[in-house]
Amino acid sequence: MTSPSASPQIGPWRRARPLLGTYVEITLDAPGAPYPAQAFETAFAEIGRIHHLMSWHAPDSDVGRINRAPPGHWLDVDPCTAAVLHTAQMLWERSGGLFDITCERHLRACGLLPADSSGWAVARSGGMADLELDDSARVRLRQPLTVNLDGIAKGYAVDRAVAVLQAQGMTTGCVNAGGDLRLFGTEGQAVSLRDPRQPTRLWSLGEYREIAFATTGSYFLGVAEEVPSAVIHPASGQAVTLSGCITVTAPRCMHADALTKVAALADAGGLNLSPLFESLGAKAHLFPPVSEETPHGLCAAHQ
What we know:
Elements: E1 13-19, E2 22-28, H1 37-53, H2 62-67, E3 75-76, H3 79-94, H4 104-110, E4 131-133, E5 138-141, H5 153-167, E6 173-177, E7 180-184, E8 189-195, E9 198-208, E10 211-217, E11 245-250, H6 253-269, H7 274-279, E12 283-287
Helix pairs in contact: 1-5, 3-6, 5-6
């Protein structure tokens, strides 16, 4: 997913930094105002903070601490991490287990995450039912388990960046984290979708406002060709084959991000999860293969 171009001299202004395992791009438009340096710095700092809190790779992150925690003891985590965990738990319950942050062992087995070289994760086979949360930003494991928030944290970081930008007085802009993006402001902004089989090619989706997008497909996997996508069924451990790509639109990018995986798994299993999507104001759109000149599926209700 891409956001609109911008002029660095007179605005709208666009800046990008490597964060969240991708490049995060922020576009701001404030006609007649000076360059919003503080807004950019504050937003990137918040994204960096979320990145560290929820990094699977950092042993001192909240995720790293959870993954090494002994069962039976309460662990304090940042309120942002707690918010994401509560949302993940809600989505797991309401999706019939399709959204599962405890199946990262399958991601390691497929080569989508590095293999565990220390051996500590071998005996950690607990699941979502073993993850206990309270209202005080604390976590307790009933059984040893490991979590990975890559399927939801990026969208949450985008939402946090938008909140920070709006608190800084920014009224119109876009935060794009490698395809998880959110538009804010009353002005329409052009959005394009990368072709999953030819990522340098873009499909124009038109102009949108006050909406978040997230897309999943076989983009830049960098693993063996036999892995068809990064969407893993939590029960079987098998990757889902996607003929095109799935884009989810929602008011919040965290929901859009997580629901791309639910939509991919529901489509493969023929499940009806319309009540879940409707309750979150979300819509899923399956785009055709590249033989189609223009993708179809985005509805005008969000335009």
